[in-house]
Design brief:
- By secondary structure, the chain is mainly alpha-helical.
- Among the domains are: about 10-70, Orthogonal Bundle (Arc Repressor Mutant, subunit A); about 105-135.
- It is built from six helices and two strands; from the N terminus they run αααββααα.
- A two-stranded antiparallel sheet has the order 1-2.
- Helix 2 (about 30-35) crosses helix 3 (about 45-55).
- The termini are far apart.
Length: about 140
């Protein structure tokens, strides 16, 4: 029985998506050429991976001559949010609090990172307060 297809990105898929996000529309050969020589995938591997990304809904293509031009249809920020939601769901029981505690629990968070987190929390609190006030009106 075939296994369910995952909508998360494998390492190879993420490498190609990063190239598409950076370069925009690309032929398969453009993707191969844009990869660093060390760890470069073969043309057929890139083609197979880009087709998988298209099946997953991350990429679409249009024909130009005899070749296909591929472009990302999922923004990088949307893919990041999807991956974070997946990690929170799978490992932290849908609890952002448990995720944050795990991140902070390692003890290797810098003061700059802590200050940035505090600012983000303050902004989230302000936004939540505005939503609450609008609902109560």
């Amino acid at each position: 029985m075939p296994r369910n297809r995952s909508n998360t990105l494998t390492e190879a898929e993420l490498r190609l998506m990063r190239l598409l996000w950076r370069c925009g529309e690309c032929f398969v050969q453009d993707l191969v050429s844009a990869m660093p020589a060390e760890g470069r995938l073969a043309y057929n591997s890139v083609l197979t991976t880009i087709r998988i990304l298209e099946t997953k809904g991350y990429v679409e293509h249009r024909q130009e001559g005899r070749a296909f031009l591929y472009t990302a249809v999922v923004a990088e920020e949307d893919a990041q949010q999807s991956e974070v939601r997946n990690v929170i769901s799978r490992f932290f029981g849908d609890s952002r609090e448990r995720l944050m505690l795990a991140l902070l629990g390692g003890g290797d968070v810098s003061l700059d990172e802590l200050q940035a987190l505090k600012r983000a929390i303050a902004e989230a609190e302000a936004a939540a307060g505005q939503k609450t006030r609008r609902k109560s009106k």
